[in-house]
Design a protein that fits this description.
The protein is α+β, with helices and mostly antiparallel strands. It is built from ten helices and nine strands. Strands 2-1-3-4-9-5-6-7-8 form a nine-stranded mixed beta sheet. The longest helix is centred in the last third of the chain and has 32 residues.
C-alpha cells in the first residue's frame, strides 16, 4: 500500500509533513492527558510505533492515519495539512469537539468579500429579506457578489465592515429595522465582554446582541439584549459562523428618550396620587354600601 505522505512529494516536503503529523498527534494526545501507552493500546499498535510517529522518524500508513484521525475526532486532511500548534485555543477546542469548521484544506477562516473598481473593500448590505439566505450563503462568492454595497469614508480602509438590518425590539433603544454596521472579527479570542456584536449562527441566523466571551472556559458565548424584557441565552462555539463588532447604526427613527430623574419622580408622584384617589373612592363606596344596609 502506498504511503499517502510520499505520493507526489519530494524528500524535504515528505519530511516536513511527517514531522507535522507527529507534532499534531503529540499535541492532541497531551491535551487529552493521555500517555503513549494509552493511545497505542486504544489503537492496537505498539507504543514504539506511536513514538516513532510523534518523533517524525516513522511514516504512518493510511490505516494508521485513519485510526488516529478517528480517535482524535478530526479529519485526515487536517491531520496531514494543518499545523495544529499554530491554532488558537478556541480553534483547538472546536477541533477536539468534532468539528473542522475553522480549518479547510489548511486555510483558517476566510471571509468572502467584494471590492470596488479601486480595489477598496465594499460594505455589503444584508436587509431583512436577505438575512435568511445569508445564513447559508455567507461563504458563497456568487451570493455575496450580488449584495448591494456602499462606502463610508469615515471608517478605516484597513478593516472589513458589513451592514445588517435588524428586526424586533430586543436591542431597544436601537429601533426596529435599523441598519447596524459591524467590523469583522477574525480572532474570536478578541470578543470583549459587554460589547455589542452582530453574530451569525448555524441555527438562528443573524443576531444582534451584547456578548460575554466564555469560549475558552465553556465553549460558548453568553448573549444579552439591551431590552430587559428579553432573557439572556448562550450559543455554542460549534454553532458560530461569523462575528462582527458593532460600530454604528443608521435609523430613520429617533430612539425613545430617557426621562430625566426629576420627570421620573414627577411621574411616580402622579401615579401614587392616582392610586390614593382610587383607594379613597373605593373606601367611600364601601361606607355608602354599609349605610344602605
Amino acid at each position: 500500500m502506498n504511503n499517502p505522505v510520499n505520493k507526489n512529494m519530494g524528500k524535504d516536503t515528505t519530511y516536513r509533513v511527517v514531522a507535522m503529523i507527529g507534532q499534531n498527534v503529540k499535541l492532541l494526545r497531551k491535551r487529552r492527558g493521555r500517555t503513549q501507552d494509552d493511545i497505542a493500546s486504544a489503537l492496537e499498535m505498539k507504543r514504539s510505533t506511536l513514538s516513532g510517529y510523534e518523533n517524525g522518524v516513522a511514516e504512518p500508513g493510511i490505516e494508521a492515519l485513519v485510526s488516529l484521525a478517528k480517535y482524535f475526532r478530526i479529519s485526515v486532511d487536517t491531520l496531514l495539512t494543518v499545523d495544529l500548534n499554530t491554532l488558537r485555543e478556541s480553534e483547538l477546542y472546536q477541533l477536539e469537539h468534532g468539528s473542522d469548521i475553522f480549518v479547510n484544506g489548511g486555510n483558517l477562516r476566510v471571509l468572502t468579500t467584494t471590492v470596488d473598481s479601486n480595489n477598496k473593500e465594499n460594505i455589503e448590505v444584508i436587509n431583512q429579506k436577505a438575512s435568511a439566505g445569508y445564513r447559508t450563503g455567507f461563504a458563497d462568492p456568487e451570493y455575496i457578489k450580488v449584495l448591494p454595497t456602499f462606502q463610508l469614508p469615515f471608517l478605516s480602509a484597513d478593516r472589513k465592515y458589513r451592514t445588517f438590518q435588524i428586526s424586533g425590539d430586543s436591542m431597544l433603544p436601537i429601533p426596529d429595522k435599523s441598519w447596524v454596521t459591524g467590523e469583522f472579527v477574525q480572532n474570536w479570542d478578541m470578543i470583549r465582554d459587554h460589547q455589542a456584536y452582530i453574530i451569525l449562527t448555524l441555527n438562528d441566523g443573524i443576531m444582534f446582541k451584547v456578548a460575554e466571551n466564555r469560549l475558552k472556559t465553556e465553549g460558548r458565548l453568553l448573549l444579552h439584549s439591551l431590552n430587559p424584557l428579553y432573557d439572556s441565552y448562550s450559543v455554542d462555539l460549534k454553532d458560530l459562523r461569523e462575528v462582527w463588532r458593532f460600530v454604528h447604526y443608521i435609523s430613520s427613527e429617533l430612539p425613545e428618550p430617557n426621562l430625566p430623574v426629576n420627570q421620573m419622580a414627577g411621574a411616580l408622584a402622579a401615579l401614587q396620587n392616582e392610586v390614593a384617589g382610587i383607594k379613597a373612592k373605593i373606601a367611600t363606596q364601601g361606607k355608602l354600601f354599609d349605610t344602605e344596609k
